[in-house]
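The protein record quoted in full:

***
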Amino acid sequence: MSTIFCKDQVSQFQQFRQDIYANFPNNRDSLMDLLDALSGNITAQTPVELCEHPSFRRGRGALYKAIKQFFVPSNPNAAVTERKQFQKSLLKAISPLIKAPTTRNFHLFGLDTTPIPRPFSPTLPDRTYIHQPNTIKGNKPINIGHQYSLLSFLPESEGIQNIPWSIPLSTQRVRSNTNSIAVGVDQVDTTLHDCPAFEKEQLSVLVADSYYSQRQFLDALSSQSNLVLITRVRSNRVFYRQPSINEETNSGRGHRRRQR
């Protein structure tokens, strides 16, 4: 039984690689080698270190060419449309890896923004100020670099000893002319609409931290009838409630004593 299960896993993995390979617009062989090198050397700090990995079977020039020519739109006006089509094709490739829920009756997602500091890259375009915790008292928790919005699918746990990995569905850079709220809303809308694994009738739950407890984010996704949003509340958030109607007249001065 375990042998059959292993063969099925290998076959699924091979099909996934083939689907990813087919979706690359340019330099497919170099990009697949780059993915293998990234998977085998997660501590690499420079592209040169990836070139030296045994999984990358080409020269350094091929790596830089593959990155530079990864996505080249047919014309500038069609860049946004073609990029969305590419993201949609990647969601279709990931879809077979997403299992239908069994122990819970909903799909679970996680959304967050991750800062990537790049203080020593003056030629890197569109750098912005990003949040970065600082242990030195008195220093502002900021840096300069890029930040990325990551939407992941959180699979069900199949046991205490078998904790599943999250499945990244969409990663987009938060550019200087937008913000994490707008990018996150677009990611959620696109994923629920274009990924075949998420049926419209199936309930979906999205969890996020206190940054996403803003009205702009909650209102933008409130039209999704099959989506439930769960966010943390900021520590300085103030809640109000309607005052209770008391028919009794207040004979004394000041506000009536609040009844708990």
